[in-house]
Amino acid sequence: MQHRRLGKSAIVVSDICMGTMTFGSQVDEAEAFRVLDASFDAGIDFYDTAEGYPVPPDIKWVGRTEEIVGRWMKTKPRDAIILATKVSGPSHVWFRSPLRSGMTALDRHNIITAVEASLKRLQTDYIDLYQTHWPDHDNPYEETMEVLDELVRAGKVRILGCSNETSWGLMKSLSASERLGVARYQTIQNNFSLNNRRFEDELAQVCRQEGVSLIPYSPIGGGVLSGKYQGGATPDGARFSRYLAMEGRQAAMGRRFVNDKSLASTARFIEIARDAGMSPVTLAVAWSKQHDFVASTIVGVSGFDQLVEILAAADLVLSDEVMKAIDKVSREIMYPMG
Asked: Of 254, 242, 303, 311, nearest to 281 (Cα)?
């Protein structure tokens, strides 16, 4: 397992990060422990969660993922784990959070309330990487960064990151931190995969120039790049099988990930993986890691058996020939996810 630095910070992590958003909904605690133990034994030392997990967001289980991760961490040396979690952004953006009666935001009250609750659920006295889950562009970045800096100074948080942020928002936050002399975002956690390369359009250059690391999520395109939705298949228990049968935000997300263009590009990537002698999941994870602006790629599973193909990407470097073949598909089928 290779290791890389998070931004300009002192923290170095494995280049594969285990995401936990299914723990407590799709994945029960016993299975979650199996996944976490196997990940740890394989050399993964970086784990990502959030106060709003598991997904889909629901009041009946919100916070359960952090509780599971907290109980698991008690079985390992705390300093052997780099723990990341998140505070929810505003509920008026694209869905109503089940947290705090839907009154979430990135102001002082919400951030302090959120971090104290997360620390309790995680059964720890500090969080290595604390992230804003989605931006609050209507709230002054000065307030957000000042209160996050207070958490760093208090020792409750080591470094800061953002998620689902824009180029404008990331630069605005960095400018506010520099002007105020407070802690800055060292990481950004956005969607990035073979089927969604929009990060390369602008945000990659911001990361390179400003020393911010991407820790991408959904490198397997929400499972689409595994090929399980090919030919119109809707596998039992699969996330987008459920989402496509729902309404509102979940249905819209399902259509964004599973559509004619994404399935067409996936078919081409499956061929490339086969010719290279690997599974499409291994190809997708290895490709995600193989970018200079990426520190660690966040993977996730809905079952223990899915780990094998993911871990096969550890230490794997794709050849120039494979990378060129991938780029050709991306040029010919542009922006499969819109």
From this structure: 311
Q: Under DSSP, is residue 20 helix (H, G, I), strand (E, B) or coil? A: coil
CATH code for 3-189?
A: 3.20.20.100
Whether 127 and 187 have beta carbons less than 8 Å apart is answered as no
Q: Over the stretch 148-200, which tens digit does the pLDDT of each residue have?
A: 999 999 999 999 999 999 999 999 999 999 999 999 999 999 999 999 999 99
- CA–CA gap between residue 306 and residue 27 (Å, rounded): 12
Residue 134: exposure state from Cβ atoms within 10 A (0-12, 13-18, ≥19)? buried
What beta strand segments (E) does the chain contain?
3-5, 12-14, 16-19, 46-48, 82-87, 127-132, 157-163, 185-189, 213-214, 297-299
Domain extents for the chain? 3-189
Based on its alpha-carbon atoms, the radius of gyration of the chain, rounded to whole angstroms, reads 19
Q: Among all chains, which residue has been given the structure tokens 């505003």?
A: 90
Which phi and psi (to 5°) does residue 4 adopt?
A: -140, 155
Distances, alpha carbon 190 to alpha carbons 5, 42, 45, 133, 162, in Å: 17, 25, 20, 10, 9
In this structure, the number of other CB atoms found within 10 A of the CB of residue 139 comes to 16
Q: How many CB atoms lie within 10 A of CB 33?
A: 17
Look up 243 and say whether it is catalytic. Answer: no
Q: Which of 47, 53, 141, 185 is catalytic?
A: 53
pLDDT tens sequence across 113-155: 999 999 999 999 999 999 999 999 999 999 999 999 999 999 9
